[in-house]
Amino acid sequence: MSVVSRGFRGRARDARHTLPPGQYETHGFPVLSAGPTPRVDLDEWEFTVTTETGDRYSWDWAQLMALPSRTPTVDLHCVTKWSKFDTVWEGVSLDVLLEDVETAADHALVRSYGDYTTNLPLEDLLDGQAWIAYRFDGEALDPEHGGPARLLVPHLYFWKSAKWVRGIHLLGEDEPGFWESVGYHNYGDPWREQRYQGD
Amino acid sequence: MARAAVPRRLGDRLSWKTARLTDRREESSAARTLGFEVPGWPGHLAGQHVDVRLTAEDGYSTQRSYSVASAPDGERVELTVQRVDDGEVSPYLTDELAVGDVVEVRGPVGGWFVWRPEQTEPVYLLAGGSGLVPLMAMIRVRRTVGSRAPFRLLYSVRSPEHQFFESELRLDSSGLDRTYLYSRSTPAGWPRPAGRFTAADLAAAGWPPDFEPTCYVCGSTGFVERAAGLLVAVGHHPNRIRTERFG
Amino acid sequence: MAPPAFLDGNAAAGDLELAFGTDMTMASGRCAGCGEQMMLAQTHAYLGGPGTVLRCPVCGSVLLRLVRSPGQTWLDAGGLGHLRIPAPA
């Protein structure tokens, strides 16, 4: 049981929104990283989907920009207990990127520039649930927050929304990512408070 | 020292303890020294830090790490906290926390960025801004135990108003060599113009590499990177340079 | 440009000591990536995220990942060729 420090509130929070269990609202946008921020030149940026048979589908930056974009407004839930409501992004839906990909895979392993990885079921990337996002709040996505582009999959804890995304491997067998392999929940649904393995 | 060195395996040293604020004083316009009474405090070494945990009425909780500023003194622990204006924790500690209020602390922790009274070699302390705090603990312990280890301090600070521990350092009679560098504005008539420190500043304020001093560098990441890089460039061995970044 | 987000391995002292039962900042190890030998205090620590990550200051490889849940501690030190821990004084 923790001792309460009188008058300590932390960052301003309000109760207008419904929070997932154990979460607290923040109006800031905390930067959490497990490694140095990669600097990716847009001329060299590439996003690649690799299937379980080794087929590759790639987009360079200009090709990504040429695809139809969406501007989802979503709530973010970080496993470190902050939630941020009504964030506005712009990006390309994974439905668009995966439309012509031929695969029988059920699992996806997302890879970033740098060495970060995270895994999720392929179906969680489809049906308007996930984007390759490159603008936040009307501005180009800051490298600290994952620019040039990050995965945005807001119905899962935010560690699944890999910053600096460079590709997705579609796999027949599930493969745990950077945090999933050291105790974090394999799926990470904030509404079921799936923080750690066994939750 | 008021208390012997830290017992290494004190079972509950890393459990959270209640710390009650007993006094506070202004250290600069944006920094306060907070004196806490911590029942069960096992004592600490100069340079160690504590984790501080704050919990709100609604259960929200967060923790930060702060260097201990004081020399060991029974169950009394002093932290010197610089207010970060958009910070979540430091404005509460510097402006809100009143005498009698409580926080939780855990520690002390860390055995690397410490100075022990047994050390006799020359010591070069390099502080950037509030990075002076753990180095001040070393200066205080050296004075308290009457150590003859030669100490030199290079303190780089934005302006005289941001200076910590000014009168205590000015009145220090333990033979501490001090050099102050101002990065933005200097006191009137100060010989060196305001500006970032250089390799020449660093060499002039410290010991030659062949004296084999232990160098303690504490400050922002930018300060530590620059100072440690310059120390190596002028010939100090990397294994004698100990760094503590505070982000 | 924002400053690097890491601190010294020193800053992870509390969580490491809870996991190992002794001060680990003076423990030394070898980076499995580049072979560099260092004390954990000299590594680059990324804190404040889901877990503690220590990286090699020379090549940037992950040396150690530590996650503490309410009931368990998870540790992967696979990025260290070995880890030499001084006996408690």
From TrEMBL, chain B:
<keyword id="KW-0479">Metal-binding</keyword>
<dbReference type="InterPro" id="IPR017927">
    <property type="entry name" value="FAD-bd_FR_type"/>
</dbReference>
<dbReference type="InterPro" id="IPR017938">
    <property type="entry name" value="Riboflavin_synthase-like_b-brl"/>
</dbReference>
<feature type="domain" description="FAD-binding FR-type">
    <location>
        <begin position="14"/>
        <end position="115"/>
    </location>
</feature>
<dbReference type="InterPro" id="IPR050415">
    <property type="entry name" value="MRET"/>
</dbReference>
<keyword id="KW-0001">2Fe-2S</keyword>
<dbReference type="GO" id="GO:0051537">
    <property type="term" value="F:2 iron, 2 sulfur cluster binding"/>
</dbReference>
<dbReference type="InterPro" id="IPR008333">
    <property type="entry name" value="Cbr1-like_FAD-bd_dom"/>
</dbReference>
<dbReference type="GO" id="GO:0016491">
    <property type="term" value="F:oxidoreductase activity"/>
</dbReference>
<protein>
    <submittedName>
        <fullName>Oxidoreductase</fullName>
    </submittedName>
</protein>
<dbReference type="InterPro" id="IPR039261">
    <property type="entry name" value="FNR_nucleotide-bd"/>
</dbReference>
<dbReference type="Pfam" id="PF00970">
    <property type="entry name" value="FAD_binding_6"/>
</dbReference>
<keyword id="KW-0411">Iron-sulfur</keyword>
<keyword id="KW-0408">Iron</keyword>
TrEMBL record, chain C:
<protein>
    <submittedName>
        <fullName>Uncharacterized protein</fullName>
    </submittedName>
</protein>
<dbReference type="Pfam" id="PF20120">
    <property type="entry name" value="DUF6510"/>
</dbReference>
<dbReference type="InterPro" id="IPR045423">
    <property type="entry name" value="DUF6510"/>
</dbReference>
